[in-house]
Amino acid sequence: MNNIVDLVIVGAGPAGLMAAKTAAEMGLKVVIFEKNKSFNHLKRACSAQIILDDGYENEFVQVSQGMLEFQKNNFKVKYSGPLVDVINKFYHSPNGHKIHFAHPNRKPFAVKFDKNILLNDLLKECEKLGVDIRMSTLACGGKDIGDHVEIDLKSKNKHYSLKAKKAIIAEGVNANITGVFGLNENRKLFTTAHVVKYILEGVNSYEPNSWNLYYGKAYHSNAAVIIGPSIYGDNIIELTLSGSANIRPKLIYQKLIGNSPLKHIFENAQIIDIHGCAVKAYMSLKKPYIGNVLAIGDSAAFVEVEVQGALMCGYRAAKAVSDELNGKNGFEMYSDWWIDSFEFNRDEYLQVSQGYALVPTYSDDDLDYLFSLLDGKILEGTYSQYKTPKLIWDSILSKKEKIKLENPDIYVKISNMNKLTLASSF
Ligand SMILES: Cc1cc2nc3c(=O)[nH]c(=O)nc-3n(C[C@H](O)[C@H](O)[C@H](O)COP(=O)(O)OP(=O)(O)OC[C@H]3O[C@@H](n4cnc5c(N)ncnc54)[C@H](O)[C@@H]3O)c2cc1C
């Protein structure tokens, strides 16, 4: 087949670039498309923290000497940028009760990194390996012909299409091209969140190296208001706000700094930069491939695989394509690995609704009472959005009898909440 490359990749995020690099290392002819012009001024919100929890996404990631090392999947990724340790995590109630997570020896459970630098490092490696990288190019359609795939592209008002034996869709969470190839059929869309990250200087009372989640109506959001470190220094923090088309993050910001328990910390704050995005929360794909097309990373996930998960998907996907081209069931093997590795693919994960249901299920007074039960206690240091609610609720429920006696209404809410599924929590 003339003029047909081995592999076309839609999206040069961590998943797409890692797939391109690995496939090129295996000798495949690869073309990758990215709608952005460059990675130097990314405007898409991402907290960019590598999670060091043992076994998270069935992997053990180590960060040292300019490398991210994936011990189980057995590969390394170069990273030449700065790192900031995340040592403490706090869940705050409206009236100042805190749930504290940390390792006993204060070893970091996450490290913040510079995503622009990580992507540029990967891009340089792809360039060296001869990957055909086409920036400022939007994939806008495509079809699977049977023995090859065609992707429709738009670059500076020029429309063209490109043929490849296999396609990897690594377009991120909004999964549009994934839908073009039919992978979103019968895929539940729960909600679309609007997320804005404010990078702020001069915020008072921020404890360095800590990740803080504020819960309660007093903070004007159903989602947690998050304050965490930035890579720019201790006096610059990142504030992340999640809303919707109806409750815009900008409105939450104005209310938060104007009238909330956090008002005083923003008195001297200056906005340095703003990043944002809309995030579609689809149910994950249990079978992320169809014909010659494999969807990877956030495109196939329930919300997000995180950057480290995206790198793992890219690495595994390239191997899957190579296997397919050699007559093996590479996509099926990828699918088995995908199901095993990511917690959102498992049924117990539906119980994570407990974590999402704090607001509005519980009133601000309820949250003060529940968080006060854990004052002074330090729970295991973890970043994981799956493990955290479990640790909190296991700890709260160890005081079940006390709650039943002191606060029977809350006890009833807890009992009802445990019956919720993920879908009903949305
Ligand atoms: C608010 C927020 C906080 C987060 N915090 C963290 C964190 O602390 N740690 C962490 O590891 N992860 C975090 N994440 C998640 C992380 O950003 C993603 O899981 C990860 O980037 C997924 O990588 P990906 O390659 O699958 O997709 P993406 O990173 O989204 O990359 C997709 C790429 O495809 C391009 N693209 C899309 N459509 C097209 C098209 N049609 N044609 C051409 N190009 C296209 C996009 O421009 C983009 O460059 C966060 C996400 C959000 C929203």
UniProtKB/TrEMBL annotation:
- Write the protein's name: NAD(P)/FAD-dependent oxidoreductase
Q: Name the Gene Ontology molecular function terms of this record.
A: oxidoreductase activity
Species:
Ruminiclostridium herbifermentans
Q: Which residues form the FAD/NAD(P)-binding domain?
A: 6-197
Quote the InterPro entries the UniProt record gives.
Answer: FAD/NAD-bd_sf, FAD/NAD-binding_dom, Geranylgeranyl_reductase
